[in-house]
Amino acid sequence: MITLKHFGYRYPNTEAWALRKISLEIPDGQFVGVVGANGAGKSTLCYALSGFAPHFYRGKTEGRLHLNEVDVLESSLGDLAGEVGLVFQNPFNQISGARYSVREEIAFGLENLGLPPSEIETRVSQVLAQSDLSELAERSPFALSGGQQQRVAIAAIMAMQPSVLVLDEPTSQLDPHGTREVFANLDALTQERAATVVLASHKLEWLAAFCDRVLVLHQGRLVADGEPAQVLADEVLLDYGIGGTRYTLAARAAQQGGLVSAQRALPVTLDQAREFFR
Predict the structure, then answer these.
(1) Which of 47, 117, 203, 214 could bridge 52 with an S-S bond, Cβ 3.0-4.6 Å?
(2) Does 1.20.1630 match the CATH number of domain 91-161?
């Protein structure tokens, strides 16, 4: 369970709060998407949930933030390492540089946790297969494309099996096939291991298809929270600079043009759009 109560965060040497008075609860096993325009606070929320804000970035906090009954603000990053994993937007910030192959890179975090070699080998083999990285296992992480490196960074965190996985725009460098694989693997984590996943992204169609819940941030505040079908179809997202899924925008245009009843609920996924236009 993740719990925030009137939580706020301000970066060092700044006057404005990057996050303001956020209160919410995220139960175990939920797949939560976070959306917002650039500068809305998505990355900062990811850093806060993983403890990087304030323990790495410093700054000032207010309110409370708990992860599985652990006070994140009173714990160190080392204390949180076994509970929560963070995937950065840029894989160059994540790859250690201390190992010479993809296989070794994925094993690096497990070695630091002190797991037995047999358990490390099992986990690495599993995550290589799940992430479609088996053919790259003996390649250097630095000989890969940006998208491949991002898949390695995600796989390394998934191998550690944290109870909470936080991802900041993890598919920004991936093609549609790679994006689908990442979302499907994260969905499987919530289903099979009851892991909690919090993912910030601009890819609304993928969030609509896979997430249980969507949070909307605007100027550091939580302005909407609910099921994807409810939140992502709301016209207020236009005012927040977010827009909507391509299916929602097309359906709204059809309603405004008088082609479809204005009383019908707007679709947010492809399957919903098929029914809407049938």
Answers:
(1) 47
(2) no
